[in-house]
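Changelog note: in this version the structure field was regenerated for every chain. One regenerated record is shown below for reference.
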Amino acid sequence: MPYLISSHPGSDLAAAIELAEYLRDINHQPEQVQDFYPTPGTLSTCMFYTGFDPRTGKPVYIPRSPEEKAMQRALPSSAVHRILISSAKPLRQAPRRI
């Protein structure tokens, strides 16, 4: 089952959008998207806790807010894609007040 990890150290919202566009362009829809969780002994975990890339010493962006993590998780999700597709027609047809 294909899945992706979102909110990885170094990934900002612009990168998540770029990934979602790439997946759309290659017609790939992952079944699951999981938030990054630190695991002991990995470079990613070191970056997550320090905010720096240990190989270069340069600062690395770390998505920490629940809102941004939810957005990064939702962007490449096939479930979101299905919801948007299925809700587009009713939204266009429904009478609404402006």
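Spot check on this record: The longest strand covers residues 3-6. The chain has a mean pLDDT of 83.
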